[in-house]
Amino acid sequence: ETGVTQSPTHLIKTRGQQVTLRCSSQSGHNTVSWYQQALGQGPQFIFQYYREEENGRGNFPPRFSGLQFPNYSSELNVNALELDDSALYLCASSLGGQSSQPQHFGDGTRLSIL
Amino acid sequence: KNQVEQSPQSLIILEGKNCTLQCNYTVSPFSNLRWYKQDTGRGPVSLTIMTFSENTKSNGRYTATLDADTKQSSLHITASQLSDSASYICVVSANYGQNFVFGPGTRLSVLP
Q1: Chain A contacts in chain B segment 3-62 (CB below 8 A)
Q2: Which of A47, B35, B67, B102 lies most in the core, judged by the most C-beta atoms within 10 Å?
Q3: d(CA A21, CA A50)
Q4: CB contact at 8 A, B61 and B77
């Protein structure tokens, strides 16, 4: 059991809408990373937050944004949804913002865009 | 361009047999290399993490190797079990942990 929980587990939206996905980190973890995983592919890094500040970002447009709260829970917001945004969105928490720490993943939110 | 490649794309073996999965990367500056196991419909689970100075690390029946000179890694699974059926993903951390580059994964099926 990883201790990382994500909500909702599944979500259906239409093009142009906005969505907020939520992640509760494992107890004591102050770093959270978000990933997009298309069907049959490996995850793509979206961004990482450490102590409420963005600490790194992958090759995703600004309509992908995030927040990390004082209790280290996190949100991923996506505006102006496109069909290609259909994917599994994973969050992972770790301790200390250090690159050598293991990441603990949630089971993801499956987002479908119609 | 930072990239991680994995081979084979998929693999079928019989229960009890050994297998080796490969990972090649072109990621700079290198921070560490990780192997994850991902069951269908679940999030990835960490198997090993290796830094530049480590060339082998084990976790039970899983043994990972790293050759930082050739930028290659392998994951060896011994005495495979049905529960080993999953995708195995190689991940290279760059920029001191501020970027993670994932490979496409190898889909392993273990048959009875």
Answers
A1: 4, 31-32, 34, 41-46, 49, 51
A2: B35
A3: 18
A4: yes
In single-letter form, the type of residue at position B66 comes to: L
pLDDT at A98 over 70: no
Each residue's pLDDT tens digit in chain B (112 positions)? 788 999 999 999 999 999 999 999 998 888 899 999 999 989 999 999 998 889 999 999 999 999 999 999 999 999 999 999 999 999 998 766 667 889 999 999 999 9
CA of B33: which chain A residue's CA is closest? A100
Q: How far apart are CA A20 and CA A77, in angstroms?
A: 5
Give the span between the Cα atoms of A96 and B1, in whole angstroms. Answer: 28
The answer to whether B76 and A16 are in contact (CB under 8 A) is no
Q: What pLDDT is attached to residue A106?
A: 94
pLDDT recorded at residue A1: 47
Q: How far is it, in rounded angstroms, from Cα B92 to Cα B34? A: 6
* Selected residue of B23, B57, B66, B102 to mutate for chain A interface (largest A Cβ count, 10 A): B102
Print the SS3 string covering B58-101. EECCEEEEEECCCCEEEEEECCCCHHHCEEEEEEEEEHHHCEEE
Encoded amino acid at A63, one letter? R
